[in-house]
User: Which sequence fits this backbone?
């Protein structure tokens, strides 16, 4: 989670903003609490060893390379994008934790170390990491689910971003009257999926 001075010098430069495809899931998970000042450093140099992903303030460093959605590939089959998106959401949780400590690196570092010690030096039982893992899993219905992934497929291929904006929740709702119909709210409306018995869906946007 943390970076030392040598690591920061080794990876000096400008990061990248999150992409529109990534923002689809970021907004669904964090809503307006996500700020655009987050910078992602892809292909970071971890020559000094340690973790393969590090967050320092609002900067996220990852050994992965930037991953965009593959053209014409259904999201449920795009494993590289799924993996990188979960990693990003995990690290974004650490950014939120940093901001919860009023942007104090030292206060967060001390709390993180205390949590690590209380967890018996178990990385996965550290409260800060437990929260990050829990948050990244909350998008599973949109990122991996056979039905849910088709909301993004339709959003991307039909250019819904210009009319609907981004989703505002991480799970879709099934119609109580029509079991093959599903809904997902967006910033400027909602989207409906009508699915056939094979699981293929047709999407319809509704503005307002």
Assistant:
């Amino acid at each position: 989670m943390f970076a030392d001075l040598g690591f920061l010098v080794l990876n000096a430069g400008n990061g990248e903003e999150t992409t529109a495809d990534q923002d689809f899931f970021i907004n669904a998970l964090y809503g307006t609490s996500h700020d655009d000042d987050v910078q992602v450093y892809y292909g970071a140099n971890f020559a000094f060893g340690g973790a393969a992903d590090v967050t320092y303030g609002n900067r996220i460093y990852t050994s992965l390379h930037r991953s965009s959605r593959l053209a014409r590939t259904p999201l449920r089959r795009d494993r590289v994008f799924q993996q990188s998106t979960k990693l990003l959401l995990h690290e974004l949780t650490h950014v939120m934790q940093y901001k919860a400590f009023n942007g104090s690196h030292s206060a967060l570092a001390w709390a993180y170390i205390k949590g690590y010690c209380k967890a018996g030096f178990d990385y996965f039982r550290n409260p800060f990491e437990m929260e990050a893992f829990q948050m990244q899993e909350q998008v599973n219905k949109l990122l991996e689910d056979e039905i849910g992934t088709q909301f993004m497929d339709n959003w991307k291929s039909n250019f819904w971003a210009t009319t609907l904006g981004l989703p505002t929740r991480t799970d879709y709702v099934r119609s109580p009257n029509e079991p093959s119909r599903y809904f997902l709210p967006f910033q400027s409306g909602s989207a409906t999926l009508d699915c056939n018995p094979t699981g293929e869906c047709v999407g319809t946007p509704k503005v307002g």
